[in-house]
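[recover] target loaded
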């Protein structure tokens, strides 16, 4: 195919473009993680309410549920580099608004909810754009390793962000703490002005952005997934895990304060333990690459996450260290579970479809989170927070076992094997 560039054949050049963009995006993740930690602790300290924390979480996931498929369709049509610039820039702008409200002493809880919602709207474009671009910039044989290393670095952010957030909150006014996200967003945007990102070649000649075309793209993405039973079952399993595990993440601050009787530093310790586990697990996956059948690697990781959550749930209130160990296990298994799944999507889904498919997967999985939160919140308020943890752990372990027993899941890659490298155009 003349006048085209097969990105994956240029194995000695891909890092020159990918690493600057990738590393800059990690700075943005650091800022976002710090702001998330600070806002969650602010709401925990001011309200001490599981309902408030649940509402804050729902504000973050509602855009994923309602708008992610449409965002994915637009990402597949738009220039992905511009999408990432606008997405990072918009989230920084919304953070600036919140920082001004804190500085003026006029912030209210509903302000925080609105900004969390708007930041999430920006995120639903950024993630599929970056993930789909990764598949075009990284050779397929390195996708699992890159996913593992990516998870490891993200884990290091989990180590740095909580104690850094706690330290900054003890030294600076709150508006200055969350303003860090503005600086890191600018760092993330800068390389995108100078490095071109490959664009997939669309099969359709109609490139107009119209309501009919966008919804047609959304429907096309759904049909693609429907024709791949293994992917549908895997997505349903991930959604179930989100259903049972989302409340554990949201209610962790109350688990630390109510059940263990600890404070912000202990909360940061648990999240740092999670981050340390993610780093080690990501590095292991980065070096190892996983089993040849990436689904087997992923399901073992899912079972490991369930084991870690179970340990947190059965830890006596006097054995806080046991919960820390449980979270470290969760962290270690997180890249093992998620890295191979991402590599499967990036290597088996055509580049021009990846924005839609990844957004569909995200939307479906996220849709289960508010349901889990709505069910868990009244139960936790009336019973025990720890009970939800150990029950969730058991159910997650069972989910991994079921995945290994289903031929459609274990044979997922073979059912949708790609025989040719992706051909893409360059701006």
């Amino acid at each position: 195919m003349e006048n085209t560039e097969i990105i994956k054949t240029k194995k000695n050049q891909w890092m020159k473009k990918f690493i600057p963009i990738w590393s800059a995006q990690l700075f943005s993740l650091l800022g976002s993680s710090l702001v998330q930690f600070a806002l969650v602790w602010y709401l925990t300290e001011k309200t001490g309410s599981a309902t408030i924390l649940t509402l804050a979480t729902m504000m973050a996931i509602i855009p994923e549920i309602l708008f992610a498929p449409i965002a994915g369709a637009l990402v597949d049509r738009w220039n992905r580099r511009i999408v990432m610039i606008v997405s990072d820039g918009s989230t920084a702008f919304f953070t600036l608004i919140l920082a001004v409200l804190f500085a003026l002493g006029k912030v209210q809880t509903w302000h925080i909810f609105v900004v969390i919602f708007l930041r999430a709207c920006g995120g639903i474009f950024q993630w599929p754009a970056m993930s789909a671009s990764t598949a075009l910039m990284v050779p397929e044989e390195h996708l699992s390793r890159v996913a593992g290393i990516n998870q490891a670095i993200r884990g290091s952010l989990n180590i740095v962000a909580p104690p850094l957030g706690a330290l900054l909150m003890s030294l600076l006014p709150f508006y200055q703490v969350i303003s860090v996200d503005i600086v890191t967003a600018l760092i993330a945007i800068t390389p995108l002005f100078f490095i071109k990102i490959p664009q997939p070649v669309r099969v359709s000649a109609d490139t107009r952005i119209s309501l009919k075309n966008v919804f047609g793209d959304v429907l096309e993405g759904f049909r693609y997934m429907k024709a791949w039973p293994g992917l549908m079952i895997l997505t349903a399993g991930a959604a179930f895990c989100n259903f049972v595990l989302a409340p554990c993440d949201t209610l962790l601050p109350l688990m630390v304060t109510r059940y263990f009787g600890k404070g912000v530093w202990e909360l940061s310790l648990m999240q740092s333990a999670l981050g340390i586990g993610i780093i080690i697990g990501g590095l292991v996956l980065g070096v190892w690459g996983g089993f040849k059948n990436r689904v087997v690697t992923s399901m073992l990781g899912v079972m490991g996450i369930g084991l870690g959550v179970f340990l947190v749930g059965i830890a006596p209130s006097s054995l806080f260290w046991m919960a820390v160990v449980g979270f470290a296990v969760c962290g270690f298994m997180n890249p093992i579970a998620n890295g191979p799944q991402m590599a499967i999507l990036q290597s088996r889904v055509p580049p021009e479809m990846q924005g839609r498919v990844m957004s569909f997967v995200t939307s479906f999985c996220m849709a289960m989170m508010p349901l889990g939160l709505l069910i868990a919140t009244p139960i936790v308020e009336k019973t025990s927070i720890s009970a939800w943890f150990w029950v969730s752990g058991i159910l997650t372990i069972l989910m991994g076992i079921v995945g290994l027993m289903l031929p459609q899941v274990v044979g997922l890659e073979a059912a949708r094997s790609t025989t040719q490298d992706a051909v893409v155009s360059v701006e």
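[recover] notes: Strands lie at 199-200, 424-425.
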